[in-house]
Design a protein that fits this description.
Residues 12-58 form the F-box domain. It comes from Panicum miliaceum. InterPro entries: F-box-like_dom_sf, F-box_dom, Gal_Oxase/kelch_b-propeller, SCF_F-box_component. This is F-box domain-containing protein. This protein is α+β, with helices and mostly antiparallel strands. Among the domains are: 5-61, no CATH class; 141-270, no CATH class. It has helices at 20-27, 32-38, 43-49, 52-61, 147-153; strands spanning 66-75, 78-87, 92-98, 108-110, 118-122, 127-131, 138-140, 160-168, 175-183, 196-201, 213-215, 230-233, 236-240, 254-259, 264-265, 269-270. Strands 12, 13, 14, 15 and 16 form a 5-stranded antiparallel sheet that branches. A 4-stranded antiparallel sheet has the order 4-5-6-7, with no helix packed on it. Strands 8-9-10-11 form a 4-stranded antiparallel sheet. A hairpin with a 2-residue loop joins strand 1 and strand 2. The longest helix has 10 residues, at 52-61. It is elongated. The protein starts with 19 loop residues before the first helix and ends with a strand.
Length: 272
């Protein structure tokens, strides 16, 4: 049965030989990439294809994961970040321009999106922002160490590489960030800052974060420098154990796991 014109919030905007309800039914089954090209046919077609109700109906008929891609764009003394949300057909669904930090000239890295948020990292992971694609709101993680860590170790976050992972706790709906810190060499002769672990909770109402909370480190060292592979499933963070850690078995992969709900490390998983 053909949908009534009321399914399009602007039926009067589409004119031509075909009635709007017929055009609606013809275009709805097409892939998103083809629809992007058809926007150039006329203003009337563009109006229909940008109609929120048409977009919602098309999304319901063509479910599938989206891909987040980004790159830094030099803008004066800052490095702005441009993000693109795409489907697997290569169609850009949405674009974002995240202004850079005026005090930071280094490059940014777009990390894996977890729990519906996109993580933008810089300064070796010590500085981090979260973007909500639904609203465009950007939240900045506190740059310093947790109070208990700063007091106990007398160091600053600039002496660490940081692996940052964002996930959602299913039971509470909270978004939390796990930050694993690995000490750098060279600050003091013969001294390497010991590994640290911190958790932050995103304040959904205010858009900010609760203060960092120092936690026990992983029972097996987690690599925070360089490329860090991570995943979040049902509120559990999974991270590869450092290949250079003691007792590592050559050719094997061990996976550390952290429960965002209880904020505790779980048993390390042994790979092949």
């Amino acid at each position: 049965m053909a949908p009534s014109p009321s399914k399009c919030s602007r039926p009067d905007a589409v004119t031509g030989v075909l009635p709007v309800d017929a055009l609606y039914e013809i275009l709805l089954p097409l892939p998103a990439k083809d629809l992007c090209r058809l926007r150039a046919v006329s203003r009337a077609w563009r109006s229909l294809l940008f109609d929120p109700q048409f977009i919602a109906a098309h999304g319901a008929r063509h479910p599938g994961p989206l891909v987040v891609a980004g790159h830094p764009t030099p803008a004066g003394r800052r490095n702005d970040v441009r993000l693109y949300i795409m489907d697997f057909r290569g169609c850009i669904v949405k674009r974002f321009h995240v202004p850079g930090d005026a005090e930071h000239k280094g490059t940014h890295q777009v990390l894996a999106s977890q729990g519906g948020l996109v993580c933008i990292s810089s300064d070796l992971g010590s500085r981090c922002r979260l973007l909500d694609p639904a609203t465009g709101a950007v939240s900045t993680l506190p740059a310093g160490l947790a109070e208990e860590h700063a007091a106990a170790h007398g160091t600053d976050i600039g002496q660490y590489w940081a692996a940052v992972v964002c996930g959602k706790v299913a039971a509470t709906g909270e978004h939390k960030v796990l930050r694993v810190l690995e000490g750098m060499r060279g600050y003091y002769p013969g001294h390497i800052p010991e590994p640290l672990c911190e958790v932050l909770t995103l304040d959904g109402g205010g858009g900010g974060f609760a203060r960092s909370r120092g936690k026990q480190t992983s029972p097996d060292p987690v690599r925070a420098r360089g490329e860090t592979s991570s995943a979040v499933v049902d509120g559990i963070v999974y991270l590869f154990v450092d290949d250079l850690a003691p007792h590592h078995i050559a050719g094997s992969k061990r996976v550390a796991s952290f429960d965002l709900g209880t904020e505790e490390w779980r048993r390390t998983l042994q790979g092949p």
